[in-house]
Write a structure and sequence with these properties.
- InterPro entries: AAA+_ATPase, FtsK/SpoIIIE/SftA, FtsK_dom, P-loop_NTPase.
- It holds the Pfam family FtsK_SpoIIIE.
- One of its GO terms (molecular function) is DNA binding.
- It contains 25 helices and 40 strands.
- The chain has 991 residues and is an alpha/beta fold.
- The strands form six sheets. It has a ten-stranded mixed sheet, sandwiched between helices. The chain has a ten-stranded mixed sheet with strand order 14-13-22-21-20-15-19-18-16-17. Strands 23-25-24-32-31-30-26-29-28-27 form a ten-stranded mixed sheet.
- α2 runs parallel beside α4.
- It is flat and about 160 Å long.
- The termini are far apart.
């Protein structure tokens, strides 16, 4: 029996079932009780009323019973009729569903076993998946379907539906060639059927596994063009319709019948022993016989014309030549040198090609062209397979023919950079990026997006859509980006996969080509990349799946480990071709370098990283480039520089460094505009360059606004306190002027201050940050740890400069970009507005020395009240002045009051003594000069309530070491230097 094919059942569909059979109606019985009840009721009514009319009700019972029976039978007949109609409609729907599934089943079968007519169109390349004779299609016929309908047949309708489901019309009839096949009938038809079988066999079986033995006659000359010359199997064709061919002897026929196709005009001419015989009666009619018995229904034979068969043989031979299959192909050498390939000819300055020979294939040199075959390529190969040698050979061969102004190479090696070391001296090489410097690798790949935009602008300005259409004098050449170990790069920088996908999508017309190499590209490259990379190269890989994923064949997995450089390439035509790549030697590299020694350097697609130290002279060069008339301006080093600030010509912008913008292929001046931007906070670890950054900003403000416009904390706690108080008072009064307040070490600036002063200073600074902007007061501060400032103050700084942080996590927590973190960042290196920054290295400005308070305390009042935390010690210092102070103790108020008549009275006591002396304290507050030595406890024990308000804050001035407060009647507290034993000089008024 011929092999029957069917589509696999679709598990997602509901099974087909037979419609339910309409059951026989149940007979309706006669309602005797319903008929008798009215009769009994009428008799009872007559006995009661003696009315004859009541007997008439007795007739209603039988009449209603008969009517009920008749109506029930009518309802049953109608229900049965509706059920039958619904069942017929269900059969119609079932037949339609069966038809749809039969079409899908037949289509699936034809896809698995295509006819020779479909193969001759050239749409499907040879599969060559079988190593021996494979089943072939004889034609189309009605066969048994795999489709089944659930249910037990009950009538002819059910049996007809089941028969229809089991019969699949127009399905391929597939047979095995093992027992031999004979064709009988008109000569043109049997030859057409035999051609169809031969083409099918040649389509399925590898050329190195099958050979054909056909008559040496003109009708079969096309068979000699087939590439099949294997020794594993032989298919013998005997055409007994030829006039000069005699019938073979019985022994010969039996020996050849196992793999034979015999053509004869009649069945009697066929040799015995053929398993299958096809009797062809017409182009669409044939009969299939198996061992002499008729099998199945009429067969529509698969026929193929002579011209179609000849054209298919020519295409198959060309495909086999490219693939290096069959014993007719030459063996590949184990080692290929570059001098074994064709010597590079004249320099090719065309933009329409990048053709280069990379190795040897069966029959000649293997040429690859990223322009014609590309635009991109994928290369696979395990360790030791020769993947790096292949990349070197490809790059060197392209460089040998095409000048640097027509092609440049950006090399990315995530194996340390050693893979491309032999060719780094070529003038075509724009640069090498390795995994040894992660930031540089990320910058280089990000710059490629800017390179695409640059090329788009160049094509737009030239009025063309493709780089190949540019005029010869245009400076734009092709750029080939070669990434070795692409998988490692994506694992480390996952965001770069988007950049590579963008290049893969837009690179063709812009002249940017990708060569992505990895040990296992399967699953690493996205669909957008693989869809635009028709060139596939696979050297030896470890698994069949990896080989199939790259080149569509498992041949690369079968390459021996001792064959480095052996690989399989698919140039985009679906045909895997074995090859041996060439080895690069130093002489070949030197030859290419010498050939283009006079060529100018190629344009680099990315900028150099920022310098580790930016001098003031370097910054001035960049400023001059940014403010030049040409746009974009270019500095001496050829680096585009963009102006800083919100407005390019804003003279109030303070430039303090350079910003790296690799995605724009340029640098920008790092500028902060105090009049327009938010307050500035510089964050960084100790030694990261905070003070240098603030000094650069301070110097810029002094240059533009004048020296007096810059105010700085850091002259000592007393002066810092007074400065904050004065600024708050100015802000509250509404006075407006352009000023800058610089606060370094903001997170620790007030940590050593007394608690009340620390909180008050923080509140004053918050007020300045909040209200100072509208009055022209800007704040630039520095801190080592941002979260020490507290959320309220931290949020008042809208502009942040991030210098070196201890860890990536701390940088991200502080609001920086974690990907820009560098463990070994140099001082002044950081980020500004999400870009890398290098601050100009300027010496920190010298702080103005703190002003000392008056050197002596003036006793210009009748009473001098001294409140001290160390009263006994200070009493001795006062004695050294020649005065005779009175020591105030708790409860000694009367003794002191008794001395008030003296010319000048000096009373010394601690806070407790003055607090217990109410009358004396009240007298001192009104008329005495109060001297306070100690803290706020001593001050509040005696000083008048109004004495502490030296500004907007109700606290006296903050004291430094060896200082005290002096409060004269009606005045606010002032700072004075307290005398020591060595300098106990008190000036007394009138002396």
């Amino acid at each position: 029996m011929p092999t029957r094919l069917f589509a696999p059942p679709d598990g997602t569909r509901l099974p087909l079932t037979l419609p339910a059979v309409v059951p026989e109606p149940t007979p309706t019985g006669f309602p005797f009780l319903a008929a008798l009840a009215p009769v009994v009721g009428a008799v009872v009514l007559w006995l009661v009323t003696h009315s004859v009319i009541s007997l008439a009700f007795a007739v209603l019972g039988p009449v209603l019973a008969v009517a009920t029976v008749l109506d029930g039978r009518r309802q049953v007949r109608r229900s049965v009729r509706r059920a039958n109609e619904e069942r017929i409609a269900a059969f119609a729907r079932l037949r339609a569903d069966v038809g749809v599934r039969h079409e899908e089943e037949a289509e699936t079968a034809w896809l698995r076993h295509p006819s020779a007519g479909r193969l001759s169109t050239g749409v499907e390349p040879p599969e060559w998946r079988a190593d021996g004779l494979a089943p072939v299609v004889l034609g189309a016929a009605a066969i048994e379907s795999a489709l089944r309908i659930e249910g037990v047949p009950a009538d002819e309708f059910d049996r007809e539906a089941l028969d229809h489901a089991r019969r699949l019309e127009g399905a391929p009839v597939v047979v095995d060639l093992a027992g031999g096949i004979g064709f009988v009938g008109p000569t043109p038809l049997v030859r057409a059927a035999a051609r169809a079988l031969l083409v099918q066999c040649a389509h399925l079986v590898r050329p190195d596994a099958l050979a054909f033995d056909a008559p040496d006659a003109e009708p079969w000359a096309w068979v000699a063009r087939l590439p099949h010359a294997g020794s594993a199997a032989m298919l013998v064709l005997r055409d007994l319709t030829l006039p000069s061919v005699l019938e073979p002897a019985s022994g010969e026929a039996e020996s050849r019948s196992a793999h034979a196709i015999v053509l004869a005009p009649a069945v009697e001419r066929l040799p015995p022993g053929l398993a299958i015989v096809v009797r062809i009666d017409g182009p669409r009619t044939a009969t299939l016989l198996q061992h002499g018995a008729v099998v199945g229904t009429a067969l529509a034979p698969d026929l193929l014309g002579a011209e179609q068969a000849d054209a298919w043989a020519v295409r198959a031979a060309a495909t086999a030549e490219r693939a290096g299959l069959g014993t007719r192909s030459s063996r590949l050498p184990q080692v290929v040198r570059l001098h074994d390939l064709a010597h590079p000819g004249a320099v090719d300055r065309r933009r329409s090609t990048l053709r280069a020979g990379v190795g040897l294939r069966a029959g000649g040199v293997l040429d690859l062209d990223l322009v014609a075959d590309g635009p991109h390529a994928i290369v696979a190969g395990t360790t030791g397979s020769g993947k790096s040698e292949f990349l070197l050979a490809w790059i060197l061969q392209m460089a040998a023919v095409h000048p640097p102004e027509r092609v440049a190479f950006l090399l990315v090696d995530f194996k340390g950079g050693s893979a491309f070391e032999p060719i780094l001296g070529l003038p075509h090489v724009a640069g090498l990026v390795t995994d040894l410097d992660e930031s540089e690798a990320e910058r280089a790949v990000q710059s490629l997006s800017a390179e695409l935009r640059h090329r788009e602008r160049a094509l737009r300005d030239a009025g063309v859509r493709d780089i190949g259409d540019l005029p010869d004098d245009a400076p734009l050449g092709r750029l080939v980006v070669v990434i070795d170990e692409f998988q490692a790069m994506i694992q480390r920088f996952r965001d770069l996969g988007t950049v590579v996908a963008d290049i893969a999508a837009r690179g063709r017309s812009l002249g940017v080509h990708l060569v992505l190499a990895s040990q296992r590209p399967n699953g690493v490259l996205g669909e957008q990349v693989t869809a635009n990379a028709p060139i596939r190269v696979s050297l030896r890989v470890m698994s069949r799946a990896d080989s199939v994923a790259v080149v569509g064949s498992d041949a690369a997995a079968a390459i021996p480990a001792d064959r480095p450089g052996r690989g399989v390439v698919d140039r985009g035509d679906g045909v895997p071709v074995p090859f041996q790549c060439a080895l690069v030697d130093a002489g070949s590299v030197d030859g290419v370098r010498a050939r283009f020694a006079a060529a100018p350097p190629v344009r680099r697609p990315w900028l150099d990283p920022l310098p580790t130290r930016l001098t003031a002279a370097d910054l001035e060069v960049a400023r001059a480039a940014a403010t030049a008339a040409a746009a974009p301006a270019t500095a001496a080093a050829g680096v585009p520089v963009r102006p800083a600030g919100r407005v390019a010509d804003d003279l109030s912008t303070v430039v303090f460094g350079l910003v790296d913008e690799p995605e724009q292929q340029r640098r920008s001046l790092a500028g902060w505009t105090p009049t327009a931007d938010a307050n500035l906070l510089v964050l960084g670890s100790p030694g990261s360059g905070r003070s240098t950054t603030l000094a650069a900003i301070e110097a810029g403000v002094r240059t533009r606004w004048g020296v007096g416009a810059v105010l700085r904390l850091g002259r000592g706690a007393p002066d810092d306190w007074q400065l904050l108080a004065d600024l708050v008072a100015s802000v509250r009064s509404g006075s407006s002027s352009q000023r800058l307040l610089v606060v370094d070490d903001l997170d620790t600036r007030f940590s050593s201050w007394p608690e009340e002063y620390r909180h008050a200073a923080t509140a004053m600074l918050v007020e300045l940050l909040t209200e100072g902007r509208r009055l022209g007061l800007a704040v630039a501060a520095g801190a080592s740890i941002g979260h020490r400032l507290g959320g309220g103050m931290r949020e008042l700084f809208g502009e942040l400069v991030h210098l070196r942080h201890p860890s990536r996590a701390e940088l991200a927590h502080a609001g920086g970009v974690g990907d820009l973190w560098q463990r070994d960042a140099t001082p002044g290196s950081g980020q500004w507005r999400a870009h890398r920054l290098q601050v100009v290295d300027v010496p920190p400005l010298r702080a103005t020395p703190a002003e000392k308070p008056p050197p002596a305390i003036v006793f210009d009042a009748d009473i001098v009240a001294v409140v001290s935390s160390a009263a006994q010690r200070d009493l001795g210092l006062l004695l050294a002045t020649g005065r005779t102070p009175i020591r105030l103790t708790p409860g000694g108020e009367r003794e002191v009051l008794a001395e008030l008549g003296r010319e000048q009275l000096v009373v010394v006591g601690d806070a407790d003594a003055w607090a217990s002396s109410y009358a004396l304290a009240a007298r001192a507050r009104d008329a005495a000069t109060v001297v306070v030595r100690g803290g706020l406890r001593e001050f509040r024990a005696l000083a008048p309530a109004s004495a502490g308000c030296t500004g907007p804050i109700a606290l006296p001035p903050l004291l430094g070491g060896g200082e005290c407060w002096v409060v004269r009647p009606g005045e606010a507290a002032r700072r004075h230097r307290w005398a020591t034993t060595e300098n106990a000089a008190y000036h007394v008024a009138g002396h």
